[in-house]
Amino acid sequence: xxxxxxxxxxxxxxxxxxxxxxxxxxxxxxxxxxxxxxxxxxxxxxxxxxxxxxxxxxxxxxxxxxxxxxxxxxxxxxxxxxxxxxxxxxxxxxxxxxxxxxxxxxxxxxxxxxxxxxxxxxxxxxxxxxxxxxxxxxxxxxxxxxxxxxxxxxxxxxxxxxxxxxxxxxxxxxxxxxxxxxxxxxxxxxxxxxxxxxxxxxxxxxxxxxxxxxxxxxxxxxxxxxxxxxxxxxxxxxxxxxxxxxx
Length: 247
Prior knowledge:
Blueprint: H1 2-15, E1 18-23, H2 28-42, E2 45-50, H3 53-63, E3 66-69, H4 72-81, E4 92-104, E5 124-127, H5 135-140, H6 146-155, E6 156-160, H7 163-172, E7 178-182, H8 186-189, E8 194-198, E9 206-213, H9 221-231, H10 236-241
Parallel strand pairs: 1-2, 1-3, 5-6, 5-7
Antiparallel strand pairs: 3-9, 4-7, 4-8, 4-9
């Protein structure tokens, strides 16, 4: 009996030995940096598993402590996929990011503003999936001008299913002049070879990352500590360095 109790205790300790965090690729770089800081400060290991939902959702159903998203609609989808594991009332809003346009360093079409994407002959790529469904439409219609969307629609040549697919396409397809995406993706495509043009107030859209503990995670006090650490004042420098807006 004593041996069984010891084994059970060891299993319980092992279960909480690592905080398992799942979500999309967008917020992953900043969360990985923060996770490293958390481990240095507390000794508690945090593992960030990121990428397209299909690659991690089945595993997350079994062992996730935290789920994060790139925006609210994405989190709503995770709640539907994990109804027993996460609840709306437990969601924490993190930092926001701004939309804009990535262009190549030589910028052959001389794109300087989002409005330049409406010009004839500009080849545009958009992300029409994951956390960016309808982003290009929201930007084009922010002032209520249907004509803006009509012009942009004619120039969209590639509809990427997610940001990672868009980055891969951007690197291999030199015919694309501009990519509508979030600020921080400039790091993924390369800041030397490309530049990011943030949309001005007439077109910019903001969306925030979110994080929620699972029912399993709520049993581990270190999970709550990590979420608070992610939101803390001390971590805002990392968020800003990775292209997100400081809280």
